[in-house]
UniProtKB/TrEMBL annotation:
InterPro entries in the record: YlxR (IPR037465), YlxR-like_sf (IPR035931), YlxR_dom (IPR007393)
Superkingdom, taxonomy of origin: Bacteria
Protein name: YlxR family protein
Region feature Disordered, mapped onto this chain: 108-128
Organism of origin: Streptomyces zingiberis
Residues in YlxR domain copies: 35-97
Length: 128
């Protein structure tokens, strides 16, 4: 009946869509996700950056990437946080007009290595 693609396929337009998706390189992009640090503007693997989310005007660290809404990515280093604050990169990243509080992120970065916060969901995972 109707032709949704330029290619001629006996199976119909659906098959064309499937082929397009597979050839679009999405697999590669997912294997090496990269983000730009809002502080030093260096690209880095997503896993090496700390996700920052905003809750009621306060930047909060989101190391597990579970908070909803817009996210910004930052090297987990106080120097990069300082750069981001000085450049006002965080309000820009979150499309906010006013300044955003960064105390929670600063406290998170200031934590000595190896002294990670207790994981609340550990019991849940063990039960499954
Ligand atoms: Zn950085």
């Amino acid at each position: 009946m109707a032709h949704y693609c330029t290619g001629v396929t006996p199976q119909g337009p659906r098959r064309c869509v499937e082929v397009d998706l597979k050839a679009s390189g999405r697999t590669h992009a997912q294997a090496f996700p990269e983000r730009t640090c809002v502080g030093c503007r260096t690209r880095a693997a997503k896993g090496d950056l700390l996700r920052i989310a905003v809750i009621e005007g306060e930047c909060v660290p989101d190391p597990r990437g579970t908070l909803p809404g817009r996210g910004a990515y930052l090297h987990p280093a106080p120097a990069c946080l300082d750069l981001a604050v000085r450049r006002r990169a965080l309000p820009r990243a979150f499309r906010e007009r006013g300044p955003l509080g960064t105390d929670a992120v600063r406290a998170f970065l200031g934590r000595p290595a190896g002294e990670a916060p207790p994981r609340a969901s550990r019991g849940e995972q063990a039960q499954r």
